[in-house]
């Protein structure tokens, strides 16, 4: 049984009209607001379009998390396309229909409209036509409100990069987080696995032998359950170093030497670095303001229909997936979220 959702008000749209700063009157109305214009959000947009749903995709102007990636590896037909090329190809598809609108802005808040649907607050840094003047805004930030009957969160997650010399230069090239994504490009090199969590260290002690025959682990000396970690590495026949990485020496992002806090150096060509992830600020905010359900890692909890615990609010993509994140799974999840909304509309009384 689906819950009927309110209809989009039959008001004319004026998305480009200047409005008063911090106004709460919506400047435009949509069936679906999609927050995040990555693979999950854009897949949701095309699925929504094909179900005759008018959507707005609100995408931050900031570079996406995978901006340094050289390919959407594993995505059939687009395997060697950069993230920007994937997004551009998606908009070429979407623009043929003309039902999805793109807005380059940050969504700062989502609230439940007492009359039904959601109010989506946006901030557009750098827009020249309106000065909000709020503390914290950059000059020229334009603020506005959109109304949507349903909302899909597709914001991805935030990677926490360590502040270590050489890390930024090597990131996504020879320092990688996911062998499924960039293992092929790093095959048959010497690998190190940098882990800060014992479960991850144990799980990966023997896991990556398809890509490299020369693997060693690097874990902090005070790692909990270090005996289990040592045993896992011994069973795998791989060396384990107990030290912290303090620097990476490289040539144009191609790693050759790892510096350790005990003064040692170790020759490695590739590091698999297990990064901590945290929710984007909007998700943390909605967990507080709307009571959006998240797990202990901050990942949004959804049911099989990609519904969150807030009726009308859906989530798709990396922000619901603690492990096994990919373009492919995000594309699938985005499409499924929009299809769930479409089904709810089809069978609503
Ligand atoms: C370096 C790197 C390389 C990778 N390589 C591969 C690969 O080869 N193959 C593969 O399958 N996967 C790869 N991945 C993983 C893949 O990029 C992700 O799984 C995928 O992009 C997730 O899609 P998404 O739409 O959920 O999130 P994202 O792609 O992260 O998109 C979310 C978007 O939401 C925007 N956003 C966030 N908050 C807001 C807000 N408040 N308002 C407006 N917009 C907001 C962000 O700016 C972002 O553009 C890689 C990841 C990284 C980091």
TrEMBL record:
Catalyzed reactions per annotation: [thioredoxin]-dithiol + NADP(+) = [thioredoxin]-disulfide + NADPH + H(+)
Spans annotated as Disordered: 1-26
Kindly state which keywords UniProt assigns to this record, in alphabetical order.
Flavoprotein, Oxidoreductase
Composition-biased stretches, type Polar residues, lie in: 12-25
Task: Name the InterPro entries for this protein.
Answer: FAD/NAD-bd_sf (IPR036188), FAD/NAD-binding_dom (IPR023753), Ferredoxin-NADP_redctase_2 (IPR050097)
Q: Which Pfam families match?
A: Pyr_redox_2
Respond yes or no to whether keyword Nucleotidyltransferase is given for this record: no
Q: Where is the composition biased (Basic and acidic residues)?
A: 1-11
Ranges for domain FAD/NAD(P)-binding come to 30-178, 241-325
- Report the domain of life of the source organism: Bacteria
Q: What is this protein called?
A: NAD(P)/FAD-dependent oxidoreductase
Record the organism.
Answer: Streptodolium elevatio
């Amino acid at each position: 049984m689906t819950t009927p959702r309110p209809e989009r008000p039959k008001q004319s749209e004026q998305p480009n009209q200047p409005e008063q700063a911090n106004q709460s009157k919506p400047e435009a109305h949509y069936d679906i607001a999609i927050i995040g214009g990555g693979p999950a959000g854009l897949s949701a947009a095309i699925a929504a379009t094909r179900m005759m749903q008018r959507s707005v995709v609100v995408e931050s102007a900031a570079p996406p998390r995978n901006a340094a990636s050289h390919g959407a590896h594993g995505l059939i037909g687009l395997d060697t396309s950069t993230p920007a090329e994937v997004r551009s190809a998606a908009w070429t598809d979407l623009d043929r229909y003309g039902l999805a609108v793109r807005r380059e802005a940050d969504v700062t808040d989502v609230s439940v409209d007492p009359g039904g649907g959601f109010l989506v607050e946006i901030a557009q840094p750098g827009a020249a036509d309106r000065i909000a003047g709020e503390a914290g805004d950059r000059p020229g930030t334009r603020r506005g409100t959109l109304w949507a009957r349903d909302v899909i969160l597709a914001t991805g997650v935030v990677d926490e990069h360590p502040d270590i010399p050489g890390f930024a230069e090597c990131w996504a090239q020879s320092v990688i987080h996911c062998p499924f994504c960039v293992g092929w490009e790093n095959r048959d090199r010497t690998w190190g696995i940098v882990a800060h969590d014992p479960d991850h260290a144990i799980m990966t002690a023997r896991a990556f032998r398809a890509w490299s025959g020369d693997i060693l682990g690097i874990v902090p000396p005070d790692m909990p359950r270090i005996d289990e970690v040592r045993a896992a590495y011994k069973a795998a026949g791989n060396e384990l170093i107990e030290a912290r990485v303090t620097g990476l020496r490289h040539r144009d992002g191609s790693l050759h030497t790892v510096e350790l806090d005990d003064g040692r150096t170790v020759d490695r060509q590739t590091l698999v670095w297990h990064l901590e992830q945290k929710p984007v600020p909007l998700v943390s905010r909605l967990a507080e303001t709307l009571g959006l359900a998240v797990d202990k890692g901050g990942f949004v909890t959804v049911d099989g229909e990609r519904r969150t615990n807030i009726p009308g609010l859906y989530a798709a993509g990396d922000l619901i997936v603690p492990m096994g994140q990919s373009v492919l799974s995000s594309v699938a999840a985005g499409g499924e979220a929009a299809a769930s909304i479409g089904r709810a509309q089809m069978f609503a009384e």
